[in-house]
Amino acid sequence: MTIHSSTKQNLFCQKADAMRFDSLYKEAVGLYLNAILIDRKSAQSYFGLGICYKNLHDYKKAIKYLEIAASIKEDYYDAYYELGVCYQLEGKNCGAIKNFIKAIQIKPDSTDAILQLGVSHEMCEEYDLALMIYQKLIENSPDFVKAYDQKSSLEMKMQNYKNASITLNKLIKKKSDYYSAYAGIGVCFEKLGKLSSAARYYRKYLSLNPFSAERDFIVQRLYKIKCNKKEFGPFNRKTPLKLLEK
User: Fold this and answer.
1) Which of 57, 200, 229, 236 is most buried when burial is the number of CB atoms within 10 A of its CB?
2) 188-211: per-residue pLDDT in tens?
């Protein structure tokens, strides 16, 4: 029985998709290319091929094939979003901004694309614009915790520690188990010279997440506050927390 060409193309694409989802990117590339040889108008095949190259860290090829996918299917949100990500990874933020804007035009409520648009502006050192995007995202999608995290990180980078602590407190109210926010507030208060408040948040972080990779750093900050000294020696995970109590 003769298999119709469109059926063969679909079979190649389905097998390639399955391999891509299993992180078998090199194997998937060949199958996508076979699918494209049968049908050069398959946006799905070009998209899958682009994603494989993205995960193989060949961003130039990823951009090439994702752009073909977007040209075939003009309302292809995923293609524009992934193009934005690949341009970011290439350090080409103008291209990233352009494609994230296209993605947002297709899906105006896409919080991920809006967030990455802010990140791209941040990478261009357009900090005020990035902050405005993060703030609008928080206002329009108040449960999207990544926006609070990104905004507070930028505020800390800009040494706006008071604003950063306010943003992180709002984040905790939305997601009380977002443990890194407690450590972030501690850093902010320490930078602001509010050492008692900083210590309180550091201890809260340790009580909620005692075995984290950041434990030694937090313990060191608490020792600095407690002993009022500038430098300390190395610490390890055996440091008794009771020494840091009030």
Assistant:
1) 200
2) 999 999 999 999 999 999 999 999
Q: How far apart are CA 67 and CA 47, in angstroms?
A: 9
For residues 83 and 70, is the Cβ–Cβ distance under 8 A? yes
- Mean pLDDT over 81-98 rounds to 97
d(CA 111, CA 125): 21
Q: Give, in order, the Cα–Cα distances in Å from 57 to each of 94, 162, 187, 241, 242.
A: 20, 39, 35, 43, 47
Q: Are 179 and 145 in contact (CB under 8 A)?
A: no
- Residue labelled with tokens 């009030």: 246
Query: What is residue 6's predicted lDDT score, i.e. its pLDDT?
Result: 72
- For residues 156 and 115, give the distance between their C-alpha atoms in angstroms, rounded to a whole number: 18
Instruction: Give the chain's end-to-end CA distance (angstroms, integer).
Output: 81
Average pLDDT over residues 101-123: 98
Sequence-ordered alpha helix ranges (H) in the chain: 5-21, 25-38, 43-55, 59-72, 77-89, 93-106, 111-123, 127-140, 145-157, 161-174, 180-191, 195-208, 215-227
Q: List C-alpha distances in Å: 67 to 20, 49, 90, 219.
A: 19, 11, 15, 49
The whole model's pTM is what?
A: 0.86
Per DSSP, 74 falls in state T
Token match 């409520």: residue?
109
Alpha-carbon gap, residue 201 to 184, rounded angstroms: 9
